Structure formats: structure tokens, C-alpha cells
Amino acid sequence: MNAPAVTDVTTTSWECFDVSIEDKVAHIRLNRPDAFNSMNRAFWVELPAIVRAIDEEARARCIVISSTGKHFCAGMDLSVFQGPADGAAGSAPAARPNPQVSAEAAIRHLKHLHETFACLDEARMPVIAAIQGGCVGGGVDMSSACDIRYCSADAFFVIQEINIGMTADAGTFPRLCRLIPEGWVRELAYTGGRLPAVRAREIGLVNEVFDTHEDVVAHALAVAREIAAKAPLAVTGSKVMINYARDHSIADSLDYLAVWQAGMFSRSDMAEAFKAKAEKRLGDFPELVPIRRGL
């Protein structure tokens, strides 16, 4: 399934999402509440198309992902496991001449799933998740790829894959092991039990818990607007440095920080930040430049 040609993410017709941009904040809402916002085939095409369009076109300074209905996301839609998918595990026998060829195709398919959530991690602007109800299976993968997570009091997290006889494979473990203590990852992965909102906050998976769905979305948008008021280059630099430090040694991270600052530090942004504070107004900072593809 191909994504729609994206000219404006806010006016493009999406099957799984509603998208709006206001106050330099992009708000992406999962919008299949009757299906508990499960991840059908369209989801895996649309999410990276939306995020990359916002990112590459520098359409916003922060992204909020929220949802509709009772649950944030029920994980993989059952339709994805039914019927053939080009080059993927589950294809008709005639399309899989031997196990090795099938395994190679399955690896490629999984890499596509990984890239769907990697776009959140790799976006130049921060991504905030506002979670209500169930965050199940692939929902955990998606939320763990975000920069910040908030949830409502009724939220719970489940590594659902173990309950259906498989190992979670769309990105849960590499990211979750860096967000919460390993013992908790193991317990959730082995048992398929629910992690309630309060415990999720206690172990650091979410920053804060709010009474209602409306409250958590409002807070996420408020934090996003606060981020959007900062110098975009400084914010993206902070994200780059945090991600790099997560994946490298302290020594390597310090070296990379020195190189980044040598090339990216903006004295004009700093001067504007001081001036805006003195004048009690928001800073007027240049936007990130859209990324040019091709020659």
C-alpha cells in the first residue's frame, strides 16, 4: 500500500490519522477508535509519511501524538496477520520457495516496521506521546520511540506479543531497556502482564499521570508549545546529543558534542533569547531549513 502524495499533511486524507498544525506544534491523532486504533496495513505507511513530511519540510517545532476513544492503541491489527504481504512472512507458499528466501524477506519486512517507529526517534523535533487506556504491543513500540510520554490514570502498558506466542519484534526491547530498569522489561516481556499508569510513572516510563484523557492531551500540547517557543536549532541539537549519548560512551559523546557545538552554536539565537527575556516576549528564532532531496 502506497502513502498518499503529501503536499500538506493537514489536508491530505489519511485512513488512520488526523493531523493539525497550530502554534508551530503538529498534533497527530490516531483516529480509528472503533478498532481501538490498532495498526492496520495503512498505519505502517501513513505514520512515517506524516512524520517525515513534517520533519523534512520543517512544518513544526514539536510533534504530539495522541489518540481517540477508549484506548491509545491495541497494537497490530489482526488483518496484518491474515493474507499475503509482499515479501513478508505469511506470504502464500508459492511465494516462498525455501525457508532461507522466506527468512530473508521476513528480515526486510521487519526492517520496514522498525523504520516506521525510527522516524519518531530520528525526527529533528521532539515527539511527545499522550496516552490513554491501553497501550498494547506495537503501541509500546511506538510510544517508546517518542521523546516524552505522559498518560492518563486509566492507562496501562502491555508487551502483548508473548501472549500470542511471539517475541516482540518492532522495537520494544532496544528502546525500553534504556527507559526503565531491565528487571521490569523482563517481567513485562515474559509474563505479558499489565503495567498500570502509576507504576509506569514510578519506574520512569512516563513523566506524569493525569486524571483524564483530555487532561493528558492538554498537558502534552502545553509542553509542546513551550518547546516550540525555544530556538529550534538548540532544541534539535539537544535531541541529537541525547540520542547520541544514549547509544555511545561518555567519551565518544563528549567528542561529538564538541564537534556539533563548533559547527552549530548560534550566537544570534543566544542574543535573541537574552533580548526576548529582557523584553518579556517570545523569542523570534529562524526555523530549521527544509531538507532538500535529490540534487
- Nearest-integer average pLDDT: 91
CATH fold-level name of the largest domain: 2-enoyl-CoA Hydratase, Chain A, domain 1
CATH superfamily of the largest domain: 2-enoyl-CoA Hydratase, Chain A, domain 1
The CATH class of the largest domain turns out to be Alpha Beta
Could you state the order of secondary-structure elements as H and E?
A: EEHEHEEHEEHHEHEHHHH
Using only C-alpha atoms, the radius of gyration works out to 20 Å
> What ranges have pLDDT less than 50 throughout 5 or more consecutive residues?
85-93
Distance between the termini: 27 Å
Tell me the strand order in the biggest sheet: 1-2-3-4-6-9
Number of domains: 2
* Rough outline: globular
Please report the total strand number as a whole number: 9
The fraction of residues in strands falls at 5-15%
Any guess at the CATH architecture of the largest domain? Alpha-Beta Complex
Query: What profile does the largest beta sheet have?
Result: 6 strands, mixed
Share of helix, binned: 40-55%
**Helices and strands: which structural class?**
alpha/beta
What is the overall number of helices?
A: 10
